[in-house]
Write a structure and sequence with these properties.
Blueprint lengths: L14 H6 L8 H9 L8 E5 L4 E5 L14 E5 L7 H12 L6 H21 L13 H29 L3 H9 L1 H35 L13 H15 L5 H9 L9 H28 L6 H15 L2
């Protein structure tokens, strides 16, 4: 059965412990594993044994669920007693699969929500920050803004799914996962998030290259120490970046006119560098989250749902 996002992995005790405690295997698990590995839809599937009192991990899963694909990650073998209703069986399975542990999908949700929160904090605390580059082009600015909204929507979808699964609406979540429009939407959001992260990381790399060209100290010391000469060169670079084509005399005139200081304060420059470091972490998390349960984990989704999106657009 598909677990739809919740399963116990490393927190369940191993079946080897049960054997050492004298609990006998109800079936030949090795024979079952061999049979599963011969089936395409069950190859490397995880196996959980529920004896009605305890739950044991027979084999960890090597299959990963995602929002856009129904993948069987675990098979639950449970002992059913006499006079057990189907509702009790379903409740037992739901309890087994709902052990409080994050899988790849929930890790991706945590990353998306964390990124959204960190981005909001950066936006609120942007007052007085010195731009270290000449700013983004119109297309890059739109891409960054779109990616921020996409990440926020990913956070909302992930949280909604988590609440639904925790509240016992697994069938409704499975129905939503099966809808092609929802799968296509998830693919688009992840693509927008990755594109925005790529643009943001490129900006961070540009800042790093510029700092390396200007500064003679190690990169690890930029956040702690910026000598006067370094700040003077960095100030000249910032003025040139904000005023393309400006001459040396133009820089001097702008400084004399009070438009720019001779040297930006070390605290302001270090705060700007710190923000670039935080932005790099935020943008990198988009790739990590996509590797857990997004387009990087399932690249075939791009072409599969791309055709659906194109056909949908052509229908209008």
């Amino acid at each position: 059965m598909a677990t739809s996002g919740l399963f116990p992995a490393h927190k369940l005790p191993s079946i080897d412990l049960a054997r050492r405690l004298g609990i006998k295997d109800p079936i030949d698990f090795q024979a079952l594993i061999n049979q599963f590995d011969c089936l395409r839809n069950f190859e490397r599937v995880g196996i959980i044994y529920d004896d009605g009192y305890s739950r044991w991990l027979v084999r960890p899963s090597r299959r990963y669920a995602s929002i856009t694909d129904n993948v069987v990650t675990h098979v639950v073998i449970t002992r059913i007693r006499e006079n057990t209703s189907s509702a009790d069986i379903e409740k037992s399975l739901t309890g087994t699969l709902s052990t409080s542990i994050f899988n790849g999908e929930f890790a991706a949700t945590a990353l998306a929500c964390g990124s959204s929160l960190a981005t909001a904090v950066l936006a609120v605390t942007a007052t007085g920050v010195i731009p270290l580059t000449g700013g983004s082009s119109g297309i890059a600015a739109v891409t960054l803004a779109t990616g921020t909204w996409a990440t926020g929507f990913q956070c909302g979808i992930g949280v909604g799914r988590a609440i639904g699964l925790s509240a016992g609406f697994s069938e409704e979540v499975k129905w939503l996962d099966s809808q092609q429009w929802f799968q296509a939407t998830s693919t688009i959001l992840d693509g927008l998030s990755l594109t925005s992260a790529s643009v943001g990381l490129k900006k961070t790399v540009d800042v790093y290259k510029q700092m390396k060209a200007i500064s003679s100290i190690k990169a690890t010391e930029w956040l702690n120490l910026l000598p006067r000469a370094e700040r003077k060169r960095l100030t000249d670079h910032i003025i040139r970046a904000q005023n393309p084509g400006i001459s040396a005399s133009g820089i001097k005139a702008a400084i004399n006119a009070g438009k720019y200081p001779k040297r930006f304060p070390a605290e302001s420059l270090q705060r700007s560098l710190h923000r670039e470091l935080v932005s790099a972490v935020i943008n990198s998390s988009a790739f990590v989250g996509s590797g857990f349960s997004g387009n990087l984990r399932n690249p075939e989704n791009i072409s599969l749902h791309g055709k659906y999106i194109i056909s949908l657009m052509q229908s209008f």
